[in-house]
Amino acid sequence: MWKTKILFLFMMVLASVDVYSEEYQIKMLSSLEGKMMVFEPPVLYIKAGDTVKWISKEPGHNSASIDEMLPKNAKSWNGAVNEEISVKFDVEGTYGYKCTPHYILGMVGLIIVGEKSSNFEQAKNSALSIEKKFATNKNRFTEYFAKVK
Ligand SMILES: [Cu+2]
To answer: Whole-model pTM?
Structure first.
Protein backbone atom coordinates (compact mmCIF):
# COMPACT_ATOMS: atom_id res chain seq x y z
CA MET A 1 0.00 0.00 0.00
CA TRP A 2 2.78 2.46 0.90
CA LYS A 3 4.33 1.82 -2.49
CA THR A 4 1.14 2.97 -4.16
CA LYS A 5 1.15 6.10 -2.02
CA ILE A 6 4.75 6.89 -2.86
CA LEU A 7 4.08 6.31 -6.54
CA PHE A 8 1.07 8.59 -6.33
CA LEU A 9 3.10 11.33 -4.60
CA PHE A 10 5.84 10.97 -7.16
CA MET A 11 3.33 11.41 -9.98
CA MET A 12 1.87 14.49 -8.30
CA VAL A 13 5.35 16.02 -8.14
CA LEU A 14 5.92 15.26 -11.81
CA ALA A 15 2.59 16.80 -12.75
CA SER A 16 3.33 19.99 -10.83
CA VAL A 17 6.70 20.49 -12.51
CA ASP A 18 6.23 22.68 -15.53
CA VAL A 19 7.16 20.00 -18.05
CA TYR A 20 4.81 21.21 -20.74
CA SER A 21 6.00 24.79 -21.11
CA GLU A 22 7.99 25.43 -24.24
CA GLU A 23 10.72 27.77 -25.38
CA TYR A 24 10.28 29.56 -28.68
CA GLN A 25 12.86 31.52 -30.62
CA ILE A 26 12.51 34.71 -32.64
CA LYS A 27 15.35 35.87 -34.86
CA MET A 28 16.32 39.53 -35.00
CA LEU A 29 17.25 40.23 -38.63
CA SER A 30 18.41 43.20 -40.70
CA SER A 31 16.91 41.72 -43.83
CA LEU A 32 14.91 38.69 -44.92
CA GLU A 33 13.56 37.97 -48.39
CA GLY A 34 13.61 41.60 -49.42
CA LYS A 35 12.16 42.86 -46.15
CA MET A 36 14.30 45.14 -44.02
CA MET A 37 14.48 45.07 -40.20
CA VAL A 38 12.32 42.14 -39.25
CA PHE A 39 11.62 39.73 -36.48
CA GLU A 40 11.13 36.15 -37.63
CA PRO A 41 8.51 34.91 -37.07
CA PRO A 42 6.81 38.32 -36.86
CA VAL A 43 3.65 36.90 -35.26
CA LEU A 44 4.07 34.13 -32.71
CA TYR A 45 1.41 32.11 -30.90
CA ILE A 46 2.30 30.63 -27.53
CA LYS A 47 0.53 29.61 -24.33
CA ALA A 48 0.80 31.07 -20.85
CA GLY A 49 3.95 29.83 -19.13
CA ASP A 50 5.96 29.56 -22.35
CA THR A 51 9.22 31.39 -22.86
CA VAL A 52 10.44 33.32 -25.87
CA LYS A 53 14.11 33.89 -26.59
CA TRP A 54 15.23 36.49 -29.13
CA ILE A 55 18.21 35.34 -31.17
CA SER A 56 20.82 37.84 -32.27
CA LYS A 57 21.43 36.61 -35.83
CA GLU A 58 22.74 39.95 -37.02
CA PRO A 59 24.19 42.72 -34.83
CA GLY A 60 22.46 45.91 -33.75
CA HIS A 61 19.04 44.71 -32.62
CA ASN A 62 17.17 44.21 -29.37
CA SER A 63 13.74 43.26 -28.10
CA ALA A 64 11.69 45.57 -25.88
CA SER A 65 7.99 45.55 -25.08
CA ILE A 66 5.84 48.42 -26.32
CA ASP A 67 4.14 49.93 -23.27
CA GLU A 68 0.85 50.68 -25.05
CA MET A 69 0.61 47.09 -26.29
CA LEU A 70 0.72 44.94 -23.16
CA PRO A 71 -2.12 43.06 -21.48
CA LYS A 72 -3.13 44.30 -18.03
CA ASN A 73 -0.74 43.11 -15.30
CA ALA A 74 1.77 41.85 -17.85
CA LYS A 75 5.45 42.53 -17.24
CA SER A 76 7.38 44.70 -19.63
CA TRP A 77 10.86 43.80 -20.88
CA ASN A 78 13.75 45.72 -22.34
CA GLY A 79 16.71 43.81 -23.76
CA ALA A 80 20.03 45.49 -24.47
CA VAL A 81 21.22 45.73 -28.07
CA ASN A 82 22.54 42.30 -29.17
CA GLU A 83 21.17 40.70 -25.99
CA GLU A 84 19.49 37.33 -26.49
CA ILE A 85 16.88 38.06 -23.89
CA SER A 86 14.49 35.36 -22.66
CA VAL A 87 11.03 36.37 -21.50
CA LYS A 88 8.47 34.12 -19.82
CA PHE A 89 4.86 35.00 -20.60
CA ASP A 90 2.44 34.32 -17.75
CA VAL A 91 -0.41 36.64 -18.69
CA GLU A 92 -2.62 35.83 -21.68
CA GLY A 93 -3.27 38.48 -24.29
CA THR A 94 -1.73 40.39 -27.16
CA TYR A 95 1.82 41.75 -26.85
CA GLY A 96 3.56 44.20 -29.14
CA TYR A 97 7.32 44.62 -29.05
CA LYS A 98 9.99 46.53 -30.91
CA CYS A 99 13.65 46.77 -31.71
CA THR A 100 14.49 50.08 -30.07
CA PRO A 101 17.11 51.34 -32.59
CA HIS A 102 14.87 50.40 -35.54
CA TYR A 103 11.45 51.21 -34.10
CA ILE A 104 11.25 54.18 -36.46
CA LEU A 105 11.92 51.76 -39.36
CA GLY A 106 9.01 49.56 -38.34
CA MET A 107 10.97 46.75 -36.68
CA VAL A 108 8.17 45.34 -34.53
CA GLY A 109 6.50 42.04 -33.74
CA LEU A 110 3.48 40.47 -32.10
CA ILE A 111 3.14 37.67 -29.59
CA ILE A 112 -0.27 36.19 -28.89
CA VAL A 113 -0.36 34.36 -25.58
CA GLY A 114 -3.33 31.98 -25.22
CA GLU A 115 -6.53 33.97 -25.49
CA LYS A 116 -5.58 37.13 -27.37
CA SER A 117 -8.79 38.89 -26.50
CA SER A 118 -8.11 40.57 -23.15
CA ASN A 119 -6.44 43.56 -24.84
CA PHE A 120 -6.51 42.71 -28.55
CA GLU A 121 -8.60 45.65 -29.77
CA GLN A 122 -6.76 48.12 -27.57
CA ALA A 123 -3.33 46.84 -28.69
CA LYS A 124 -4.42 46.93 -32.32
CA ASN A 125 -5.69 50.50 -32.06
CA SER A 126 -2.44 51.60 -30.41
CA ALA A 127 -0.43 49.81 -33.08
CA LEU A 128 -2.28 51.44 -35.95
CA SER A 129 -1.57 54.89 -34.58
CA ILE A 130 2.06 53.99 -33.73
CA GLU A 131 2.85 52.80 -37.27
CA LYS A 132 1.88 56.16 -38.74
CA LYS A 133 5.10 57.51 -37.22
CA PHE A 134 7.30 54.91 -38.89
CA ALA A 135 9.61 56.22 -41.62
CA THR A 136 9.56 52.88 -43.47
CA ASN A 137 7.34 49.81 -43.31
CA LYS A 138 4.45 52.06 -42.42
CA ASN A 139 1.86 49.30 -42.74
CA ARG A 140 3.73 46.65 -40.82
CA PHE A 141 1.40 46.48 -37.85
CA THR A 142 -1.60 46.50 -40.21
CA GLU A 143 -0.02 43.56 -42.02
CA TYR A 144 0.77 41.66 -38.82
CA PHE A 145 -2.62 42.22 -37.24
CA ALA A 146 -4.23 41.01 -40.47
CA LYS A 147 -2.45 37.68 -39.96
CA VAL A 148 -3.83 37.18 -36.48
CA LYS A 149 -6.43 34.44 -36.40
CU1 LIG B 1 16.69 46.28 -35.06
So the answer is: 0.87
